[in-house]
Amino acid sequence: MILWLRLAFATAVVLAPGVLVARALGRRSASAAVAWSVAVVAGALALTFAVQGSLWLTLGLDLGAGALALPFAFRRSRDERPPGRAAVFVLGLVLGALLWGIEGVVRGDAIFHLGRIRKLEDFGALSLKTVDEFKDGGLHPGYAFPLWHGWLALVARVAGVDPSHVVAHESSLLAPLAVVLAYEMGVAVFRSAWLGFATMLAQVALIGFALGSGGAYTSLELPATVSRQLLIPAAITLFFAFVRTPSRTVALSLAAAGMDIAFVHPTYALFIAIPLAGYLLVRGRRDAIRNAVALTAFGAPVLGVFAWLEPIVAQTRSHNPSATERAQQLRHYAGDLVVHSQHDFHLAAGMVSRSGAIAIAGLVLVPLAGLAARRRWSAFVLGGSVLVLVLELWSLVFPHFSDLVSLSQSRRAAGFVPFAFALAGGAAVLARLIGPAVLPVALAAGIALQLAYPGGVGLAAWIALFGGLAALVVTVFRRGRSLERPGALAALAVALFLVPVVVHGLSHWSAAATSDRSALTPGVVRYLRADVPRGAVVFADLETSYRISGYVPVYVCNAPPAHVADTTANRPQARRAAWLSFLATGNLAIPRRYHAGWLVLRPHEPVREAVLQGARVVYRDASFIVLRL
């Protein structure tokens, strides 16, 4: 409870400047507050890097921005908060409490991000290069500007806790905010509190319950997940707020959200722009100017960030890959693709709905959006779904898309089909067409899909693509009223459909992992933190090095290639080969080539005897030996 309270207080402190700036601009939504909170930290970090200051300077600048906005934050403004937001927040608190017990251990990609947070928190003279895992490496194209890492480092600093506690448990604190943002997003798109609630339920069930073990909500602290569940919902809310009621302050807030996403996870800024562009195309001449201005407000800072990142991205092997590199990628992701040749492949249709019943239902209901063609949500569902699916399922386009963003990322764009909106909107149309009968139909469909297709089905994606195209053709000729009933009946139908999914999720509510077979011992962590200087270089095997970079403020010489940006400066495969060569020969010239001053070995590694002749043992326990070169 004490740790939860400390993290809650620190999270509120870091959010506060964004709340005050948003209110000073007359925006009272959670979406604007989150967008400005992250944007203010971006500005503070940029100044810190410019003068090579410490995280204390970042915190001072962040709080100073809030103090400057404070006198203007209490002016009268239009209250944008949708009704029932407090109740939604309470639901989010319940979700956060459920997540706290299953967050498990820090593992996988989280260790990579923990290392960057730790360096920001522990080092003094900060720069963009400071947070890298390798002292002689290069910037990571996805995290060249460590914005979200800086945000979490501020939480750790204010809370006075080790960054590993933030990485392990911040998800529980961010979950209520994610639920509120999903609700605001639904209300902004549908202009209906009931359908906003339905959208929120569908989003939470899809992300947190469909796959069991808390789903992606257990990793809300990671840049990719926080982009999907916090920053992108905020951007969608602000986008539709602008197209309905244009204003400069909303445009500024939308631009801040675009910049946030581009820095936190660049490819996702492009991926969410695809359904927004689809909306603009389907909407056509209606509100054309304000729609274009909204997309420009979002896209201009994104393009600016992309221009800054371009030289870094150009150094990665996965960007415009060679024939050899592409062949390796196609073999690695063969289970996700339909491959005819190196230049003729696309995403397997079943991957679009792999999260199960909710995704399948959303895809199947996409064509029904054509019956509400006069509504903005219809244009978003039809345009967004069709455009994303064309990029993912058309082999004439998908290879070029993959060359641009890398194959590992292009596969993820399928997740940006607006599933939750298609489900909520489809329920509203069915409520109009079949009335109260929609309730038993929804429950029966939820049970059937959950039992029959827990892992998705390819047919649903093709129904969405070709049914959506047909619906777009029909909307050109159909001029009648929108057939929908956006009220309690539709929301209840969505809730009933989700019952089997939630039951499944709760029955599999357990930590995905409770131990780490390659974990460092507490003793070696204590020794490395206390006796090895900050910023020193340590040489060890790949898995040990990876964990050392996360738990100790030092640099390493190698790491598992899957967790390293494959750039010309990083050379992850060459580093792996260097470790294997050292393992075979015990030649101390290899770690010295990387300017390593410390060597960490496991007792079973067969180089100990050779190494002892040229290094001094300074620490030993049952699992590790530390030597000073």
For the residues shown, what is the average pLDDT? 94
Task: Tell me the β content.
Answer: under 5%
Question: Can you summarize the main beta sheet?
Answer: 5 strands, mixed
Low-confidence stretches: none
Distance between the termini: 44 Å
Number of domains: 3
Q: What is the radius of gyration computed over CA atoms, rounded to a whole number of angstroms?
A: 25 Å
Helix and strand composition category = mainly alpha
Number of strands: 7
If helices are DSSP runs of H or I spanning 4 or more residues, what is the number of helices? Answer: 26
Note down, in words, how this protein is organized.
The protein is mostly helical and 629 residues long. Helix content is 63%, strand content 4%. It has 26 helices and 7 strands. The strands form 2 sheets. The protein has a 5-stranded mixed sheet with strand order 4-3-5-7-6, covered by helices on one side. Helix 23 links the parallel strand 3 (537-539) and strand 4 (555-556). Helix 1 (2-24) packs across helix 3 (55-69). It is globular.
